[in-house]
Amino acid sequence: MLNIHDPQIAFLTAFLQEASELAVKIQKEQAGQKITKSDRSPVTVADFSIQALFAERLKQAFPSDVFIAEERARILEADPASLEKVQRYLRGKLSNDALPNLLELIDQGAGENVPETCWVLDPIDGTKGFLRGEQFAIAVAYLQKGKVELGALGCPWLDAECAPNPRGPGIKVIAKKGEGAWGSSLGGQPFLKKIQVSERQNISNSIPLGSVEPSHSNDAKLEELFQHFKIKSPAKKMDSQAKYAALAGGYGDFFMYFLPRSNPEHRMKIWDVAPGACVVEEAGGKMSDLNGEILDYSQGLTLRRNPGILASNGFLHDELVQFCKTRI
Ligand code: AMP
Ligand code: MG
Question: In this predicted structure, what is the pLDDT of residue 37?
């Protein structure tokens, strides 16, 4: 059972609630507005607002803790209209001292090294889904001595069963190593529910999950896999680590990221994986790379040693690895 009075759990619970509400507000009000980063990926006012909010709440709860996060303040600094919006969304949330120092606050998470013990944040995971008004997740992990100790996802567009629900209010899932994955509502009704993966063992009857953006994986290889195992269900597609929560809750049975043809050297960033992986594993599922190797979070910002991702309910894992490792 999760101890909700544990200071780290209480911190994550309060942060996911506050951040999810803010993200939904911005998603609705800013409808699709984005800034384009140098790698051509999009970023929004919500990404910066939530990174700053995390920095402030972490400082209040655990003043000596450090965190590593996805966004960098210089992009916001170069866009005064967006900076003004972030300030507006955070007014009343940040102290009067913190608000003028927003850029420094954001860059507290801009380290290029990953300390053995630190927090990891993706303020808006699945920014493309966020921009389409669809799935996204706020993703946080806590690493201790290079291992994921806590994983937490705020998923405003998943229901209490971790199935998509475009009406909300959404779920927050917190997993602690050895203590399971637990869900509670982002809406009013209080509950704390153990999250568990499906028990489906027959791969041809299994339900795959997948990315919406084809460029994040390899559709031809996915198609080959579906044919090979005679999988009847098409992939249920959703953006972000909401997929990890959906797998953890048994809405789907597996997913994988093959290396994209256009970008075969691509490796995941630590914040793309650590929060969701902890949730999946604590819900009874299994995580590895495409070779079946364990995920190594000790290689800096990227999972340099791990090509692709394979996530499953555990039962299907070995069969999937046998297929995937010959097709990297
Ligand atoms: P999804 O939310 O399923 O669309 O996938 C998001 C993941 O795709 C992120 O965690 C990234 O690591 C990965 N990703 C983003 N851009 C690319 C890219 N250009 N090539 C391969 N993977 C990418
Ligand atoms: Mg992000």
Answer: 83
